[in-house]
Amino acid sequence: MKNNRRIFLKDLGRYGAGVCLSPLISCQKPPKKSLGVALVGLGGYSRGQLAPALQLTKYCHLSAIVTGSPEKVPEWQKNYNIKDSNVYSYQDFDKIANNDEVDVIYIVLPTALHAEYAIAAANAGKHVWCEKPMAMNEKECQAIIDACKKNKVRLSIGYRMQHEKNTKTLIGYRHTKPYGDFTEIIAQAGYAGGGGTGWRHQKSMGGGAMYDMGVYTVNAIRYATGLEIKKVISAEHIISRPELFKEVDETTQYQVEMSNGLIAQGWTSVGESKNLLRVNCDKGWYELSPMQSYNGVQGKTSDGILLNEYVESQQALQMDDDALAIIENKEMMVPGIEGLKDIRVIEAIFRSAATGESVSL
Ligand code: NAD
Hints:
Bound molecules: nicotinamide-adenine-dinucleotide
Structural class: alpha/beta
């Protein structure tokens, strides 16, 4: 009898507190309508974009914060009504596993820390959203994917562009081919500035143009065409301010070949501003410019169609799409493998720039 009870309690634990004993009443917890999100890292992107966007979302909300900067906590608690019990430091991060008000952990840290915290989040049994670039290298990306699989939690990468309406129209053209077959793709993403110090200038932290901005160009080449990059034909780093860019790339240009032989030109910089995704086809062309700014992504086609649907917040669209995919148990729009594929290309671009040779994938 004692043994049976022990087995029963073990099973009850396995199936979760949502199961009750009465055969007459269904005590299964109803699926949540809105998921609680914990932001890990309260830097520029969390503060300026994600937290405000989480005030606009329908299927998720900001429920917790994880930070190593206690001085930031009072303002966040006041602005976003966050309870004391939902504030974590990196030291007590693992306790988040017991917090039912957190369903998703969103990693918004410097790139070198993504893998460590994404894996810890998965091991805490929470769904994982991870900012771009997914991690430092393919091995780390795979480790994140494996941890999410092992813990049966969902994973998506914060590629906001793929949720943006005008970008989705452009992505749709790859199926309908209104301007014929692709002849060339040009993807450029860069901003003027890139001064200062900090992790974006440190190689070991994942700094530099290619990781920060170039990842958008690689991702764009892939989403515009639906094709995979099979070879980096050439790549080159250009440094115009050597006193600032001692360890990482300031500007990188590269040429890649897709699985069907199509050529794409990529360019990225943290010293010069460009923002273009151009798709040349045999019967016309279309482009987005800017193609990856926070607001006002817009474009046009060779026959005068304007792609300028208004989007209030790309981040709100992204997080609602991802939350709904979890709630409805549907596929993530941008799963972990998409982040891994981009990092694989970025690693090949660095190898090509270092050796001066083409690199096959
Ligand atoms: P940031 O420098 O403004 O903030 C980084 C945060 O990490 C800070 O709060 C800092 O205190 C914390 N941190 C913890 N440990 C750290 C350490 N060892 N070194 C440095 N900082 C540490 O950076 P950010 O702009 O908020 O970028 C964070 C992540 O978000 C990056 O992966 C970046 O690529 C991504 N991001 C994405 C977008 C987008 O549009 N999807 C835009 C900006 C940034």
